[in-house]
Amino acid sequence: DQQVKQNSPSLSVQEGRISILNCDYTNSMFDYFLWYKKYPAEGPTFLISISSIKDKNEDGRFTVFLNKSAKHLSLHIVPSQPGDSAVYFCAASESGTYKYIFGTGTRLKVLA
Amino acid sequence: DGGITQSPKYLFRKEGQNVTLSCEQNLNHDAMYWYRQDPGQGLRLIYYSQIVNDFQKGDIAEGYSVSREKKESFPLTVTSAQKNPTAFYLCASSIGGGIGELFFGEGSRLTVL
What we know:
The structure holds two protein chains of two kinds. By secondary structure, chain A is an all-beta fold.
C-alpha cells in the first residue's frame, strides 16, 4: 500500500526551463509535506516543506504547491540548473505520529 | 558541526552473520529513524524512536533490531533473519512530532556476499 506516490520515475529538462515534479498521496491525515534531493551514495538533503494550512511555499528557485482536495503536491524549480540533476523524493507525515512516508523518487536530469 | 554520523560507510558480510550499523547525532533531537533504500523503491521505514528507551517498528522491521539507550545513539542490527539485507541504509533524526524536517546521515552500504 503505497501512501505516497511519485508516478514519474524520470524527467529531463533543458537548462533554464522549469522542472515540475509531482507527488500524490492517499492518506488524508497527512498534514506536513517535504521535498528532498538525493545524490547517489549520499544522504538526502532537505529542500522545502509545506504545512497543510498553506497551498504554496517558496524558497528561492524552489516552490512547492499543495492541492489538498486532489491530494497532490508539486515541486517547481525555476530556472533549472545542471546541478539540480539528482533524485527527488517527496515525503509526508501526520503531526504527532513521528512517521515520515517517502515516495519512490523522480530522477531529474537537467540538460546543458 | 551538528549532524548525523553513520558508520561504516561500506560493509560486507557473509550470509548468516549479524551486523550492526552505527548512528550518532549531536543535534539534540528526540526522534531518530532508520530507512532502507532499494532501487526503484524509495525510502522505506525500518524502525523509529521517539525518545530514549522507546522505539517502534516501521513498515519493514522484520529481520532488524534496534536499541535507544542514549539520546544521541540509535544503532541498527541487521540479523541473519533478514532475507535481502543488501541495501543502502539511512539514519535520520528530527525534533519530533511529525513536523519539521528529517536530517539524514550519509548512509551505509551493506553488501551480503
